[in-house]
Amino acid sequence: MRRKGVNYSKFGYIFTFPFVLAFLIFSLYPILYTAFIGFTNMQGLIPKPIHILDNPFQNFKDLLFDNASFRKSLINTGLLWIINFIPQIVLALLLTAWFTNARLNIKGKGLFKVLLYMPNIITASTIAVLFSTLFAYPMGPVNSLFDMMGWSHAPINFLQDKSTARGIVGFIQFWMWYGNTMIILIAGVMGINPALFESAAIDGANGFQTFFRITLPSLRTILLFTLITSMVGGLTMFDIPQLFLAGGPDDSTLTTSMFIYGQAFKGSYLYNRAAAASMIMFIISGVLSGFLFYLMRDRDEAKLKKAQKSYRKAAKAAVREV
Amino acid sequence: MGKIQKSSSVNQKISKTIIYIICIFLAVLSILPFWIMFVNATRSTPEIQSGLSLLPSSHLMSNLQVLLDKSFDPLQGFLNSLIISTFATLCTVYFSSLAAYGLVTYNWKLRKPFFTFIICVMMIPSQASAIGFYQFMYKLHWTNSFLPLILPAIAAPAVVFFMRQYLLATLSLEIVEASRVDGSGEFKTFNRIILPLMMPAVATQAIFAFVANWNNLFMPLILLTQKEKYTMPIMVSLLRGDIYKTEFGSIYMGLALTSLPLFIVYFLLSRYIIAGVALGGVKE
């Protein structure tokens, strides 16, 4: 196709150059710089010469072994992610199964999708402040509702109790994201070859069997995608817990991002400690996504490799015997 | 046989009713908090404290008055957010389309490694580099400037990935060849012919980039310290502060004002947004 004498390949480099340049300046350099700061004594508002600590890993060691607040923030982040992700994926799968079931033929799917996705588009900060106002004590809309329904006799101070505070933060995350997950899963089901469902129906599979034997396995890649994006999102959870309760009560909703923000920008200027915490977060996110890719890799491919390996072993053994 | 069919259809009717009830409950759950927000924006603080109501009252203007009296400037926040989100969105969609076009059209040595690299960096959370980024911007005297919130948008790996998938599915290289024969330069071909062809994908990604920038709290909170530079989400965070402690009516008013533009955009574009979410998930 290409005429001789004109080589267009240089345009590949030219067209991707702005991306690469912006990435190097605004992402790669800051990450390396953050890693470097993690090894130094950079603290305080006024810039002064910094140097690498005698034990370069001192900040990391302090964080992991001597900092109860940081450990708590890691545990909280994991906990908040789990209590939001498990109900989220279960409900999204359930709704997907209902909405894609031709026999049920649910009406108004379009409207339901629009309404269930809605909380996702609204600014998280607005939602956080809204919920903290809705759960106000002693008189807020939720307390009024509980009173009206006769569910409670005295106003409940939701925001002072550790488990309800965590539960509400988890619920907000769940409420904001299950619609998004549902739409992605429905799109995934639409992409499955309809012939698979037809042959399952001919073979007499019921709804459950079709869902667990055909729908779920075909969604593996999309579930992986959802899991990883949700995980990285969960790891960086900031807006909701920060504006909902600012980490309280008693640090029970303090997340890792909030810890980083708090160390560096809320009056203490402990940039080195915050940088070390960012690096730990970065490593965790890398390890988790690598692990998930490994877990969810195509099993058939893995089987094939295993088979090849045993074949090679057998061949070697055969050679030796001869 | 007939009996079995009848009982199964009765079963189906029952399960269908349950499904509708659950779906309607979830829809109400999506609407109710925002409904209360808009209704309470029109009610006075004593009214709000006396109980829940789903019908608006008549204190809209007085709530607005109280809100604006306390140095809350939603118009300034709206303008700042609009400037940042618009330019960041333009950077994201233009340069991502350009990079994706470069990836799909040209045969260059580093094409494959570059694509692998994009997949790897797609997952890096921006919080991981925040400290270094802040120190870097501080040295450049770029804190309290909009540039560090706009320029990084040029490198949006996830958008490049999406655009590449779109181009692979839709672009025929014959168009590129034909325009070369006609003597069009490579940049001109991209700007005049390819970019208009990519408009459906560009529009979808533009909506999401805009909303993501509009809703971003972390970076602006770190970088912007001057009041007149605050974006909408930072303004919202002011409502949590002490100055509004007992003025519930005006808190709801502020929340309603900051989210109103998003509701309007959402209901105008919901069809495209839902389609975009679905497309974004179907990644191979």
UniProtKB/TrEMBL annotation, chain A:
Regions that span the bilayer: 12-32, 79-102, 114-137, 175-197, 218-238, 274-296
ABC transmembrane type-1 domain segment(s): 70-292
Entry-linked PROSITE patterns: ABC_TM1
InterPro entries: ABC_transporter_permease, MetI-like, MetI-like_sf
Chief location: membrane
Subcellular location per the Swiss-Prot or TrEMBL entry: Cell membrane
Membrane topology: Multi-pass membrane protein
Key words, A-Z: Cell membrane, Membrane, Transmembrane, Transmembrane helix, Transport
The UniProt record lists the keyword Transport: yes
Signal sequence annotation: none
Family to which this protein belongs: Belongs to the binding-protein-dependent transport system permease family.
Name by which UniProt lists this protein: Lactose transport system permease protein LacF
Gene field: lacF_11
UniProtKB/TrEMBL annotation, chain B:
Membrane protein topology class: Multi-pass membrane protein
UniProt domain ABC transmembrane type-1: residue ranges: 78-269
One Pfam family, short name: BPD_transp_1
Subcellular location: Cell membrane
Transmembrane segments: 18-38, 78-102, 114-137, 149-173, 193-214, 249-269
Keyword terms of this UniProt record: Cell membrane, Membrane, Transmembrane, Transmembrane helix, Transport
Domain of life: Bacteria
Main subcellular location: membrane
SUPFAM superfamilies: MetI-like (SSF161098)
Protein family per UniProt: Belongs to the binding-protein-dependent transport system permease family.
Name of the protein described by the UniProt record: L-arabinose transport system permease protein AraQ
Organism the protein comes from: Paenibacillus auburnensis
UniProt lineage: Bacteria, Bacillati, Bacillota, Bacilli, Bacillales
